[in-house]
Amino acid sequence: MALTREQMAQRVARELEDGFYVNLGIGIPTLVANYVPDDIEVMLQSENGVLGMGRYPTEDELDPDMINAGKETVTVRTGGSIIDSAESFAMIRGGHVDLTVLGAFEVDVNGNIASWMIPGKLVKGMGGAMDLVAGADNIIVTMTHASKSGESKLLSECTLPLTGAGCIKRVLTDLAYLEVTKGAFVLKERAPGVSVDEIVEKTAGKLVIPEHVPEMHISG
Q1: What pLDDT, on a 0 to 100 scale, did the predictor assign at position 163?
Q2: Which NCBIfam families match (predicted)?
Q3: Does the predicted TM-score (pTM) go above 0.85?
């Protein structure tokens, strides 16, 4: 069975390390804030100028003026800061973000990412994604493995305008966790109940399959 958005966020949260400064992109990545392990300290950064975001607010905590880059209401943890966008982007461009989690429309075997434009469709636009992929060495993309019409999003070559070139090393989809290396997607884990054959069928780019591909551990 394919992972839900919440389960994808839960799996990505396992990649967080103590002391990390982390930027969470719009969409599935923002949900990662709800699954930060209790035994580590991380600082979640949003390019609109929030450093130290917490989980989504309850109804009692909701403050309409406290938003992330996707204009969703958020909380701010103890010790968090509100900074201007110039400082926020200086942090991003200066390479001070330890992990970036982004959504995407397409990723290809060379680590290229397309995430900001679909010709003929209304999309939110680039936002800070170009700065994030240029300023980060450690990026995880989260997205569905295929489109609603069944077309693979893991390609030999991106067909949409690129956000960044050669910058993606890891992809977490609703079917699998993969690494991007040497012109191929390497299958590292599969979602519970998802067969290797299904992943092969829905991956258009070159796919390397190790002898043993474990199922992801997803709690709850």
Answers
A1: 93
A2: pcaJ_scoB_fam
A3: yes
